């Protein structure tokens, strides 16, 4: 089925939503260590500001992989840190609407052709206009086999090979063409929903200034020092210094075409999650966003109690998903029993202090495709015992349950789940492994049950769902005719209600057959110092209007 192939090839970006994979940084100043928040100094910190300068420090808990848009892998810190210099075509706002960044708008001519309309006011910091040629140049380099970016999935477009690359030395892409100086047409090989094009491509295409770097060879584009300190940008800030493990320092682009930033300097400080509270308390960190900054749950109440800080819980986005290898547990009644044995609401209240929700299927309540009529399966151990008896379950067997050692909250949740399963005769052996090992086990299918935090893009979960329900080769190994038919229709439907009906079919079927279930969906904590104005930590759209951030006098 084409759907399965499409889903598998989408895996690179889907996994970027699970965690921020890192490609090799394009140089960097890794010999200069920055200061960690909370008083734990590890060498030279970002340079101090001059008297009267307005400086904002953003705390994040993932290291930086690259500042080069051509090496982008979709990891959040990489994407947003780079996007401060090179705007993407569009970005999601806090309300999950696509907001034009460099693009004025994106429209669908049909299910295979999409027009990107560049904002006529968009200019580079040297005063030159941003044009269709910049978009074409950047897309061509993203498909260069010499540069070798496999994460951006350009195989979807006409003229690009199934490996995601054009021929070495190619000077154009058949499916990405200039209509006029401000318009580019993207043509896909197979039907694609407009939301998929915007979410999976337009959000990650950060045009580069062709007139500045077109003289670089493809080899130079992967390592040239220019990308560490670009002197021509389209965004609100320019990097002045960085250490990929500790900090990134920016200065304002005074020629930003949307208006010069109100703050003079911005620092992204890379810290341990346990250091976020101390940094906010001391003022070393001004703001922490929900998806780039992972607070330990045990620090939530302490952050809420800080007088100088406003705590902001984000929308429920990150799904603690539990995947069942259906070839190993082929009877749906057993999988149903596994679900109704778990008191998910109790786990949510005890371990996450109620900051989240319980749902069935892939979608959380903030998705426009969420079906509020699907009532989550309730805790019912008596029903579980009946289902197991009907299925002839052999209670002497032991299931291997793989979990991420780095997720302390779910390590505790898994222990509760194992105890509740044992109470009805399902014995599991918890295998606690690091994330890299967990992904290796998942890819090889060497598990009975496996859990990982997974963010299904609320506006476009298609890639993840198609992959995870893609039959042989997917994590679950599950598929069904009903699911395949619904998935086949999604790229052909470009209205919200029609798409919602299709995802409802899928989630109903997943609730019935249980190839996966959600243990809980997390509403993560963000925080902002009250001295800042115009700054609200949000799951999406956090940096969209960073030029409006300010520091109160």
Radius of gyration, in Å, reads: 24 Å
**Amount of beta strand:** 15-25%
Please mark out the parts with pLDDT under 50 across 5 or more consecutive residues, or reply none.
Answer: 1-44
How many strand units?
21
Helix tally equals: 17
- Give the overall shape, derived from the CA principal axes: globular
The portion of residues assigned to helices is 25-40%
The overall pLDDT average reads 90
Give the neighbour order of strands across the main sheet. Answer: 8-9-10-1-11-19-12
Largest sheet, in brief, is: 7 strands, mixed
**Alpha-carbon distance between the two ends:** 61 Å
| Structural class assignment | alpha+beta
Characterize the structure shown.
Helix content is 27%, strand content 19%. It is built from 17 helices and 21 strands. It has helices at residues 2-9, 11-18, 76-83, 132-142, 194-202, 210-213, 218-221, 276-282, 300-305, 332-340, 344-351, 381-391, 408-422, 435-444, 462-468, 481-489, 496-513; strands at 55-60, 90-92, 98-100, 103-108, 113-118, 176-180, 183-187, 237-243, 247-252, 265-270, 287-288, 309-313, 318-324, 356-357, 398-404, 427-433, 449-455, 516-522, 525-529, 532-533, 550-551. The strands form 5 sheets. It has a 7-stranded mixed β-sheet. Helix 1 packs across helix 15 (462-468), helix 10 runs antiparallel to helix 12 and helix 16 (481-489) runs antiparallel to helix 17 (496-513). The protein starts with a helix and ends with a strand.
């Amino acid at each position: 089925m084409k759907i399965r192939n499409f889903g598998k090839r989408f895996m690179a970006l889907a996994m970027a939503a699970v965690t921020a994979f890192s490609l090799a940084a394009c140089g960097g100043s890794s010999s200069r260590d920055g200061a960690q928040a909370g008083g734990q100094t590890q060498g030279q910190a970002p340079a101090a500001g001059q008297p009267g300068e307005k400086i904002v420090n953003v705390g994040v808990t993932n290291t930086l992989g690259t500042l080069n848009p051509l090496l982008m892998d979709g990891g959040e810190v990489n994407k947003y840190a780079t996007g401060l210099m090179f705007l993407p075509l569009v970005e999601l706002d806090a309300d999950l609407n696509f907001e034009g960044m460099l693009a004025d708008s994106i429209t669908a001519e049909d299910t295979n052709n999409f027009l990107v309309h560049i904002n006529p006011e968009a200019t580079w910091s040297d005063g030159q206009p941003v044009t269709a040629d910049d978009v074409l140049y950047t897309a061509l380099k993203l498909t260069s086999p010499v540069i070798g970016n496999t994460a951006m999935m350009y195989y979807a477009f006409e003229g690009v090979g199934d490996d995601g690359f054009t021929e070495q030395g190619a000077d154009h892409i058949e499916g990405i063409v200039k209509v006029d100086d401000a318009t580019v047409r993207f043509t896909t090989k197979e039907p694609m929903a407009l939301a998929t094009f915007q979410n999976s491509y337009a959000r990650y295409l950060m045009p580069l200034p062709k007139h500045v770097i077109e003289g670089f060879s493809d080899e130079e584009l992967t390592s040239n020092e220019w990308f560490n300190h670009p002197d021509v940008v389209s965004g609100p800030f320019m990097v002045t210094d960085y250490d990929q493990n500790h900090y990134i320092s920016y200065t304002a682009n005074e020629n930003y075409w949307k208006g010069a930033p109100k703050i003079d300097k911005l620092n992204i400080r890379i810290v341990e999650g346990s250091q976020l509270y101390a940094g906010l308390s001391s003022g070393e960190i001004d703001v922490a966003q929900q998806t780039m900054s992972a607070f330990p749950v045990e620090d939530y109440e302490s952050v809420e109690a800080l007088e100088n800080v406003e705590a902001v819980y984000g929308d429920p986005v990150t799904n603690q998903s539990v995947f069942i290898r259906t070839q190993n547990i082929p009877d749906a009644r057993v999988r149903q029993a596994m679900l109704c044995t778990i008191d998910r609401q109790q786990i949510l209240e005890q371990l996450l202090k109620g900051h989240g929700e319980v749902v069935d299927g892939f979608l959380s309540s903030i998705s426009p495709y969420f079906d509020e009529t699907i009532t989550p399966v309730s805790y019912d151990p008596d029903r579980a015992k009946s289902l197991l008896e009907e299925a002839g379950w052999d209670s002497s067997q032991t299931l291997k349950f793989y979990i991420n050692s780095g997720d302390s909250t779910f390590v505790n949740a898994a222990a509760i789940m194992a105890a509740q399963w044992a109470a009805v005769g399902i014995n599991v052996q918890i295998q606690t492994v690091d994330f890299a090992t967990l992904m290796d086990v998942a890819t090889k299918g060497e598990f009975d049950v496996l859990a990982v935090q997974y963010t299904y893009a609320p506006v476009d979960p298609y890639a993840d769902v198609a992959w995870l329900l893609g039959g042989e080769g997917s994590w679950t190994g599950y598929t069904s005719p009903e699911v395949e038919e619904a998935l086949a229709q999604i790229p052909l439907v470009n209205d919200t209600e029609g798409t919602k009906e299709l995802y409802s079919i899928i989630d109903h079927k997943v609730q019935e057959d249980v190839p996966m279930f959600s243990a809980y969906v997390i509403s993560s904590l963000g925080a902002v110092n009250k001295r800042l104005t115009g700054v609200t930590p949000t799951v999406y759209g956090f940096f969209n209007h960073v030029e409006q951030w300010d520091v109160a006098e």
